[in-house]
Specification:
Order of helices and strands: HEEEEEEEEEEEEHEEEEEEHH
Mean pLDDT: 79
Structural class: alpha+beta
CATH class of one domain: Mainly Beta
CATH architecture of one domain: Sandwich
CATH topology of one domain: Immunoglobulin-like
Low-confidence stretches: 14-35, 286-322
Radius of gyration: 40 Å
Strand content: 35-45%
Shape: extended
Largest sheet: 5 strands, antiparallel
Helix content: 25-40%
Number of helices: 4
Oligomer: single chain
Length: 350
C-alpha cells in the first residue's frame, strides 16, 4: 500500500515537472522576432493638422524619404514623426532638431503610433532646392523594453519660392510664390470707368468710408505658379500707421477682404489665387465728443435707475395680502377646533 502511494506521488511529481518545463523554456526565450521591429515615418503638416500640399515619398509603413516642394510657405508648419513604440518625451535627430511627444497616438496599419512634432522655425530653409538628399541617422529607444534601434529618415527640397515685382500706376507690387519655370508678373491698372472697378468700390463702400489708392488686375504669365501667394503693395511712407482695406475679387465672383496697417510704406496679404485687387485708405471715424459721451452715460444711468425702481416695485412684498392671511389662518384653526369639541360633547350626552 505504501509503495502504491509513493509511486503515485512520484508519478504526480514527474507529470507536473513535464508539464511545466516547456512553459519555462518559452518564458526565458527572448529572441527578437520580426514583430519586435520599430518603424518610423514622417511628413509635414500645417497648424490645422493637414498634410502640406505636394509632399511625397515612400518607405515602410509610411513616408521615410520626403520630397519637400520648395514652392510652399512653411510658416506655421511642423514635421510630424510617427513611431510605433513610445520613445520618451523627446527624440533628438542630429543635424536636424528635437521632436517633442505630442501626447497623441494614432491607430494605423494595425499599429499604435506615437506622434512627435518638430515646429519649423526657419520656413525659408525649405524654399531653396537641395542638391542632394539630407540623410538623417538616429537612435530610437523603446521605453517599455529598453531596446535601442538605429533608424534613418531623409528629405530633399525640390523647386523654390521666388518674388516677382512690377511697377504699376502709382504703386509697386511684389508677389512671392513657387514655380517650376520662370514667370513674369503683370499688374494692369483697372480704370475708374471699368465695370469691375465700379462693382468693387461699391462693395468696399458697404464696409467702410474709404479713399481708393489703386485697383489692379494681377497675373503671373509664362507658366503655372505653385502654393499660396504673398502680395505686397507699396503704397508710400506717408500712409504709415494708417488702416488700409484690401479687396480681392476671386475667380468665382466672391470677395475676400483684409484690413491691414501700413508698415514701412507697405501692406502684405496672402491669397490662393490672382485676379482683381483694390486697395483703399480707410478714413478715420469721427470720435464722439466729451459731451456726447457724458450724455450717453447719463441716459444709460437714468435708464438703469428706472429699471431698478421697477424691479424694486416688482419685488416689494404685497404686505396687505400677507397681513390678512395672518388673521385668517388662526380664525380657521379656532373654528375647526370649536366644531370638533361641540360634536364630541353631543356624542357624550347621548
Amino acid at each position: 500500500m505504501k509503495k502504491c502511494v509513493k509511486i503515485s506521488i512520484l508519478l504526480l511529481i514527474v507529470a507536473v515537472v513535464i508539464g511545466i518545463t516547456p512553459n519555462i523554456v518559452m518564458a526565458t526565450d527572448e529572441t527578437p522576432t520580426e514583430t519586435d521591429e520599430v518603424y518610423v515615418a514622417w511628413t509635414v503638416k500645417n497648424n490645422a493638422g493637414e498634410e502640406v500640399e505636394g509632399i511625397r515619398g515612400g518607405g515602410d509603413y509610411g513616408i521615410q524619404d520626403l520630397v519637400v516642394p520648395g514652392y510652399n510657405d512653411y510658416t506655421n508648419c511642423y514635421f510630424e514623426l510617427k513611431v510605433n513604440v513610445y520613445a520618451g518625451e523627446e527624440i533628438t535627430i542630429d543635424n536636424f532638431g528635437t521632436f517633442a511627444y505630442s501626447g497623441e497616438t494614432r491607430k494605423q496599419s494595425d499599429m499604435e503610433w506615437y506622434i512627435y512634432k518638430h515646429v519649423i522655425t526657419e520656413p525659408e530653409k525649405y524654399n531653396k532646392p537641395s542638391e542632394e538628399y539630407n540623410s538623417l541617422n538616429f537612435t530610437i529607444k523603446d521605453e517599455e523594453t529598453g531596446k535601442s534601434y538605429e533608424k534613418w529618415l531623409g528629405y530633399i527640397v525640390v523647386g523654390e519660392r521666388k518674388t516677382y515685382k512690377v511697377e504699376s500706376g502709382n504703386m509697386s507690387i511684389a508677389v512671392e510664390t513657387g514655380a517650376e519655370t520662370e514667370l513674369s508678373l503683370k499688374a494692369d491698372v483697372i480704370e475708374s470707368t471699368n465695370d469691375t472697378y465700379l462693382e468693387m468700390i461699391q462693395y468696399i463702400n458697404t464696409k467702410c468710408d474709404n479713399e481708393c489708392l489703386g485697383s489692379f488686375d494681377i497675373s503671373l504669365v509664362g507658366g503655372e505658379y505653385k502654393g499660396n501667394l504673398t502680395i505686397t503693395f507699396t503704397v508710400g511712407e506717408e500712409y504709415n500707421g494708417k488702416d488700409v482695406f484690401v479687396c480681392h475679387k476671386k475667380s468665382d465672383g466672391t470677395y475676400e477682404d483684409f484690413r491691414e496697417v501700413v508698415t514701412n510704406g507697405a501692406v502684405t496679404v496672402t491669397v490662393s489665387e490672382l485676379s482683381p485687387f483694390m486697395i483703399s485708405l480707410i478714413n478715420e471715424q469721427t470720435t464722439p465728443t466729451e459731451n456726447d459721451t457724458n450724455n450717453t452715460t447719463v441716459e444709460d444711468n437714468n435708464s438703469s435707475t428706472t429699471n431698478n425702481e421697477e424691479k424694486e416695485l416688482d419685488e416689494t412684498p404685497k404686505t396687505g395680502t400677507i397681513d390678512l392671511t395672518y388673521y385668517i389662518i388662526p380664525v380657521v384653526i379656532i373654528s375647526a377646533a370649536g366644531i370638533i369639541l361641540t360634536i364630541k360633547r353631543k356624542q357624550a350626552k347621548h
